[in-house]
């Protein structure tokens, strides 16, 4: 009999909504929430021995601590397989499922199965780890797809519990993880490429071996009518925040952004700001935060009349390993805030 543990957030565990989002990890025996119908799909074996629950905000703000607590809680139950979610399109929940699965799979060397919408940022988190033991089952965007998601999770978990060999993603029903395995093919790469070309010319279906992303076209903004009258805001993806990181940015795969006051500052003084980013040497920015937000130079331009006025706040997020859909969401939210504040143009500082 395979022992399983199920990971849920506070909402799906039935503890509460946002008012319980700060709850620390805890474990309860048996199945909770969607774990109950999930167990029905699983049958008599494997069994959900316990459910780990954690608040969305607690995990988002204390990810490493949350994982450490969860691993400690699992010792008593000695699971052989972990289930997480389904998270659908919930970004915080999906990211937590991805992180818990990776922590458990690497620490306990057991397979983990989670489920979420393909555009959930948690999917990119799993792909970035190249974790051979973690699988993501695709779901609908909303909880309306719960019955189908639970059925798919149960079917996949039963295959793992039975020791079945799991094939490629498109054949086995999980989302691609960006992992390539060597195998001997019947045809050479040139022959396979020619087969795809001929199929495309003939209008027949074919499957490329090299996945590619489709990016929506972005139309450039119209030039400012009169720069000397324009209100200009500064934005950065360097992760520069007030000292202490008040909004708890993550150094990688960040999902947050902040808006911080510049009033009373002629320069970004050392010791008052810090950079939270895993993609470059933040010590350099720590010595001179103007590298990330060039307030000293912008103030000079403002004083010279090069543009109308500097917006009294700057906008910041951490771009390192950011999921494209998350970065797009952050950009939309920042833009809306800028427009409501009367901003005419933006200086986006390169990292």
Summarize the structure.
The chain has 351 residues and is an alpha/beta fold.
Largest sheet: 6 strands, mixed
Name the helicity range.
25-40%
- Oligomer status: single chain
How many domains is the backbone divided into? 2
Number of E-type strands: 12
Tally of contiguous helical segments: 11
CATH topology of the largest domain: Rossmann fold
Q: In words, what does this structure look like?
A:
The structure is a single chain. With 351 residues, the protein is of the alpha/beta class. The chain has two domains: 3-172, Rossmann fold, CATH 3.40.50; 227-349, no CATH class. The protein contains eleven helices and twelve strands. It has helices spanning 35-42, 56-61, 63-74, 91-108, 121-129, 146-161, 169-172, 189-201, 282-287, 295-304, 324-340, and strands spanning 3-9, 26-29, 47-54, 81-84, 112-116, 134-138, 231-236, 240-242, 257-261, 273-275, 309-317, 345-349. Strands 2-3-1-4-5-6 form a six-stranded mixed beta sheet, sandwiched between helices. A four-stranded mixed beta sheet has the order 9-11-7-12, sandwiched between helices. Strand 4, helix 4 (91-108) and strand 5 form a beta-alpha-beta unit. The longest helix has 18 residues, at 91-108. The chain is globular, with a radius of gyration of 24 Å. The N and C termini lie far apart (52 Å). The mean pLDDT is 92.
Based on the model shown, name its key terms:
351 residues; Rossmann fold; four-stranded mixed sheet; 11 helices
Element layout with pairings:
Layout (H helix, E strand, L loop, with lengths): L2 E7 L16 E4 L5 H8 L4 E8 L1 H6 L1 H12 L6 E4 L6 H18 L3 E5 L4 H9 L4 E5 L7 H16 L7 H4 L16 H13 L29 E6 L3 E3 L14 E5 L11 E3 L6 H6 L7 H10 L4 E9 L6 H17 L4 E5 L2
Parallel strand pairs: 1-3, 1-4, 4-5, 5-6, 7-11, 7-12
Antiparallel strand pairs: 2-3, 8-10, 9-11
Helix pairs in contact: 1-6, 3-4, 4-5
